[in-house]
Amino acid sequence: MFDFLKAFESKADHPMATEVEAQAILALLEDEQPEAALEQLVDWARSLREADGFACDTRFGVVKAIDECARPRLENVLAEFFAHVHVRDRTQKKSFELLHSYWSEISGAYARCVADHEHGLQGAARLREELPLALGRSMRAAGQAARMRCLRYLGIETGTWAELSRQFAYAELLGIDDKAFVPYPGEVHSTARAEFLKVLGLSLAALHELPPQQIELAFRILGRFAASFAWARQIKPECNFVIDLSAKSPPCQVSPKGPAAPSMRYFGGGPALSKLEEIEHLSEANLLSEEMRFGKEFSPAQIVTVIRHLRTFLGTVPPQRRYSRAATGVELSVVHGFRAICQRVAAIEIGDSIALGDDLSVEQKKRASMQLQAEEIESHPETWREKDRSEWGIGVDIPPGKGQWAEPGVACGVRNGEDGPWSVGIIRRLEADDNGHLHGGFWILSKKPISVWLRVIGTEGQEASNWETSTGSFSYRYMRAILLPDALKWHEHPVLLMGRQELGMGEMCEVMVGEHSRTIELVELIEEGADYLRVGFKWRAPAKP
Q: What's the rounded mean pLDDT across residues 59-76?
């Protein structure tokens, strides 16, 4: 309905003083390339955040027009970012800066609409009905900006919490923190609380321990299930995290001795954890429907890996560091990639005469061995700076220009000194500062790894020896694996690494150790990494004497 009195209100001194003027300017971007158009939209969003003189509802209408104009461009720029996500090059950095700037500025523009309403400025009454949408979109965009920083291992900006907490406190004051709205056309309903919880979940999910593609998957999972988190104004058993709406700090675990205050809000995984567990089991069995897979680009193994990670860090008992660290300050040789590790750790080649026990102990007498094929060296070691070490962990500083491939989930061989033994580790965390300096940490899986060949012989009753070819021979697949004798067992099963490939649990493989070959069964996928699978297995027959 036309508001007669609004026609007599003063207009802001701004090129987009009305929605009609805004649409005319935005139409000029039609022929611009996505990046160039988005750069201009960043400037417009910033100007809407900073400019005075707007009526609350007019500012909101213009901000919505900018946001809707940006959405198709965002998809293109985001696709460019993910095309370079595994390499921290200039192209990736440029895409990151553009995306982060846009979401930061549009979040601020929506937040200005909310602040103007809070101050009772002109048009506040007319905005009241759409205030839940303004709050939700501001929080949604803040979450998108946080997502981008997580994808670059920069962490969520400190200032995010003061603004989000202020907005959410105002939503609670008006009683609209749980009022449903549709954030964008084609989406399901959300609430200000749900959008707030998504960002809180991002902060607590230890995303610096995941590779970029899995960070993106975690973001999508949280987007779907954060609304099911437990939430309360008082401490409850299922609410093991807390955020102080009056402070400017991120959420943290509840401390039994921590102060209680009216501004404290308590939350936890709650019902979301059981829903995630159900999705995990369906994904393990490869039974997830297309609409439940969070995107065609994610494999069932990745979904299992990320859900286990989220359930661990958002559960009622998040993990704590178990081993103390001692400062070292020495050089560390690092080689990355599954095949490169296989080429450097202690190896059992086909033809070696050994005895392999159920505890993975090796009694070996070398004789002339053979390989299935000659292998080129995959990569050469880099020298990083080891800054501290624990029993099974190493903290590192990555020198400038090194580790361009480094990200959580990458398997590495590491050793001190030229003649030291190689250990196998996984980059478990990666953090960057705003100057681009990288800091990380290894989880050492094994200090006594053994590289072996496996021959895949099929599932029970479907052995490859039954698949006679037209030439009268049999068809087998061979693959490299790394046995981890001193690794922590998984559900009482010993653990190995193998190259990332399509291989189902229940498959049986022969460990190629000459006259003392052993048969194992792959029983449980533990984790899918960048180019490997970490798998629990069991012996199918006792060791031969």
A: 97
Average pLDDT for 3-26: 82
Residue 368: what pLDDT? Answer: 37
Three-state DSSP state, 248:
coil
Residue ranges in 152-232 assigned as alpha helix (H): 159-174, 192-204, 212-225
Coil, strand or helix at 520:
strand
Position 364 scores a pLDDT of 47
Question: Exposed e or buried b for every residue in 282-313, given b needs 16+ CB within 10 A?
Answer: bbbeeebeeeebbeeebbbbbbbbbbebbbeb
Question: How many angstroms separate the CA atoms of 454 and 104, rounded?
Answer: 51
445 DSSP assignment = E
Query: What DSSP designation does 207 have?
Result: G
Query: Tens of pLDDT along 124-177?
Result: 999 999 999 999 999 999 999 999 999 999 999 989 999 999 999 999 999 999
Q: Residue 201 corresponds to which tokens in the numbers above?
A: 């979940």
Distance in angstroms (rounded) separating the CA atoms of residues 135 and 139? 6
pTM given for the model: 0.81
Number of H helices, E strands in the chain: 12, 19
Q: Please compute Rg for the chain using Cα positions.
A: 28
Of the candidates 172, 176, 168, the residue with the CA atom closest to the CA atom of residue 247: 168
Half-sphere exposure of 340 toward its Cβ, with a 13 Å CA cutoff?
Answer: 18
pLDDT tens digit sequence for 232-249: 999 999 999 999 999 889
- What are the domain boundaries of the chain? 1-204, 326-347+379-446
Q: Which two structure tokens, joined as six digits, stand for 100?
A: 């982060």
CB atoms within 10 A of CB 180: 13
Shortest CA distance to 143 belongs to which of 199, 225, 75, 221?
A: 199
Helical segments of 285-386, H only: 300-313, 338-342
Cβ proximity of 536 and 508 under 8 Å: no
Decide if domain 326-347+379-446 falls under CATH 1.10.8.640: no
Four-residue CA torsion sign, 275, 276, 282, 288: positive
Selection from 226, 75, 81, 252 nearest residue 152 by Cα: 81
Alpha carbon of residue 527 to chain centroid: 14
pLDDT of residue 358: 58
Residue 379 CB-density burial (10 A; 0-12 exposed, 13-18 middle, 19+ buried): middle
